[in-house]
């Protein structure tokens, strides 16, 4: 599943096509969750992201695209995979595949809390800490994937941030010292922007310290466990990461 930084890259690339305020001349694809005709001859007013959601803004509504686990997109090109939604402008075509598409009516700010987006200018770490402490019995590995707290964080970010912070994934929120919680919240945003830089450079995997690895950087054997209530895969080091209890 693409994580927040990958969706930011999508937004940046599509913005480079200068499609803002451009009219959609043709709508194609097999999408059933929205009325395609509603988009025809409408002008796009902008593009935003919220975590793993890509948002196409119109005057009175927004089209939300979630790429799920295997979603893809192409600009000015097509592929053999069944097209979910294609938008044709004067000089460009934008195609989305294997994704979930929804329509959001009204002001997008009433639908999304952009202060929870780990890559947004509006990000507020203090709110994240407040939300974490409100679920004291939760495992940190689960809450780092909670999109209402850390919108855009996925399993790669979770694993790498917990290793950076030296915190075991099965530590409960109530047992983690305040200084460590603040460090985790700080590192999740820092790592998200490192992720963005490495993804653009095509070197993301080279920088993984524990994700999909067998040893940590200090050569300790890593454990691989489906952890927490969510049972998402965690890679961690019992030597380097403390389990608070």
Question: How does this structure look, described?
Answer:
This protein is an alpha+beta fold and 245 residues long. It has two domains: 4-112, N-terminal domain of MutM-like DNA repair proteins (Alpha-Beta Barrel); 115-236, Helicase, Ruva Protein, domain 3, CATH 1.10.8. The protein is 24% helix and 20% strand. It is built from five helices and ten strands, in the order αββββββββααααββ. A four-stranded antiparallel β-sheet has the order 1-6-7-5, with no helix packed on it. The protein has a four-stranded antiparallel β-sheet with strand order 2-3-4-8, covered by helices on one side. The two termini are 31 Å apart.
Tell me the number of strands. 10
What's the gyration radius in Å?
A: 20 Å
Mass-distribution shape: elongated
* CATH domain topology of the largest domain: Helicase, Ruva Protein, domain 3
Q: What is the correct CATH architecture of the largest domain?
A: Orthogonal Bundle
* Major sheet summary line: 4 strands, antiparallel
SSE run = HEEEEEEEEHHHHEE
Domain Formamidopyrimidine-DNA glycosylase catalytic: 2-90
GO molecular function, one term: endonuclease activity
Keywords: DNA damage, DNA repair, DNA-binding, Endonuclease, Glycosidase, Hydrolase, Lyase, Multifunctional enzyme, Nuclease
Pfam family, one: H2TH
């Amino acid at each position: 599943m693409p994580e927040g930084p990958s969706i930011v890259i999508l937004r940046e690339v599509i913005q480079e096509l200068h499609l803002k305020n451009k009219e959609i001349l043709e709508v194609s694809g097999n999408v059933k969750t929205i009325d395609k005709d509603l988009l025809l001859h409408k002008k796009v007013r902008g593009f935003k992201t919220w975590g793993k959601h890509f948002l196409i803004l119109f005057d009175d509504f927004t089209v939300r695209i979630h790429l799920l686990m295997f979603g893809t997109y192409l600009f000015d090109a097509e592929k053999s995979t069944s097209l979910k939604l294609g938008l044709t402008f004067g000089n460009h075509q934008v195609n989305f595949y294997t994704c979930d598409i929804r329509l959001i009516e009204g002001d997008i700010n009433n639908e999304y809390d952009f202060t929870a987006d780990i890559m947004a200018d509006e990000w507020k770490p203090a709110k994240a800490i407040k939300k974490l402490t409100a679920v004291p019995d939760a495992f940190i590995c689960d809450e780092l994937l909670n999109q209402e707290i850390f919108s855009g964080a996925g399993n790669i970010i979770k694993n790498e941030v917990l290793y950076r912070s030296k915190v075991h994934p099965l530590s409960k929120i109530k047992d983690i010292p305040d200084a460590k919680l603040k460090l985790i919240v700080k590192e999740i945003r820092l790592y998200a922007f490192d992720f963005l830089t490495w993804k653009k450079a095509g070197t993301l995997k080279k920088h993984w310290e524990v994700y999909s690895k067998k040893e940590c950087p200090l050569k300790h054997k890593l454990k691989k466990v489906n952890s927490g209530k969510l049972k998402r895969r965690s890679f961690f080091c019992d030597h380097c990461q403390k389990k608070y209890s």
